[in-house]
Amino acid sequence: MTLFIESIASSVAEGVRATRVDGVPSTLFGADGIITEITNILLFVAGALAVIMIIVGGLRYVVSGGNSSAVTSAKNTILYAIVGLIIAFLAFAAVNFLLGVLSPESQSGADWTNV
């Protein structure tokens, strides 16, 4: 029975190794980890959306024609985009801090499971 379980585990491990592709992160934490990659992508998306909303708010401000409610709405769009950008950067800093604390490199002798 033990030999059967070992052969299954070996087959599964061989299958996992066969699916790895060059350039794809194989660890969860650390500088080249999956969570770091996801965080970087989400920060890029949040930053791009904030810049787009700042541009939209600026265009709305320009075409408001002096209408006070349109000007206020445009200013609020710009303000909320800037606040969202600040929150995204703070979240990025918090996630990077936590990843630094949880990374295998910072834990000497810890048993970490990698994908």
Brief summary:
The chain is an all-alpha fold. The chain has helices at residues 2-19, 34-62, 68-102. It contains 3 helices and no strands.
Question: Which helices and strands, and how do they pair?
Answer:
Layout: H1 2-19, H2 34-62, H3 68-102
Helix pairs in contact: 2-3
Describe the protein.
The protein is mainly α. The protein has a domain of 71 residues. Helix 2 runs antiparallel to helix 3. The protein is elongated.
Which key terms come to mind for this protein?
3 helices; mainly alpha; single chain; 115 residues
User: What is the count of helical runs?
Assistant: 3
Structural class: mainly alpha
Give the low-pLDDT segments.
none
- What's the assembly state of these chains? single chain
Instruction: Give the proportion of residues in helices.
Output: over 70%
Question: Radius of gyration over alpha carbons?
Answer: 23 Å
Percent of sequence in beta strands: under 5%
Shape label: elongated
Strand runs, count: 0
Largest sheet: none
